[in-house]
Amino acid sequence: MKPMQTGSIITTASVAAHIAGPSMAYTTLKHALLGLTRYAAWELRDFNIRANTISPGAICTPIMKDVPKFFLEQMQASSFFPKMKTSVSHKIAGPDSIANAALFLASDDSAYVSGEDLAVDGSHMLQPGDPLINAYKLSVAASKSALI
């Protein structure tokens, strides 16, 4: 990219970069990606290379099959999955939502955008409390009580 004097670096963070999550390691990594990407944007600005992050919320992908059954039930009970009451679209997005954001950030349409984080989360981070975190806490509590 430096020899060409142009380029766009896009990293994938998460809403976990903005809110506390159930996994310290995951949340810390996503916070670090924001800092790394902003630093890259600053360092590479003279080469006309932009760097941005995308922070997805819940995305309906095959990884969702690995979410424990009780956790999914709690998410459904909290109206988080598959219908998010407080999201703009009232649903969990598909991978195409992230792909479209990446296409925008890679295109000349975002030529003046660098060092930014684009949340693609259906307004997830705007809701009071976090139903995803609350559902996780309920599933952990239920798992512990099942062992007693």
Automatic annotation (TrEMBL):
Biological processes, Gene Ontology terms: lipid metabolic process
Superkingdom of this protein's organism: Eukaryota
SUPFAM superfamilies: NAD(P)-binding Rossmann-fold domains
Keywords: Lipid metabolism, NAD, Oxidoreductase
Gene Ontology terms for molecular function: oxidoreductase activity
Alphabetical list of Gene3D superfamilies matching this protein: NAD(P)-binding Rossmann-like Domain
Cross-referenced InterPro entries: NAD(P)-bd_dom_sf, SDR_fam
Family: Belongs to the short-chain dehydrogenases/reductases (SDR) family.
Protein name in the entry: Uncharacterized protein
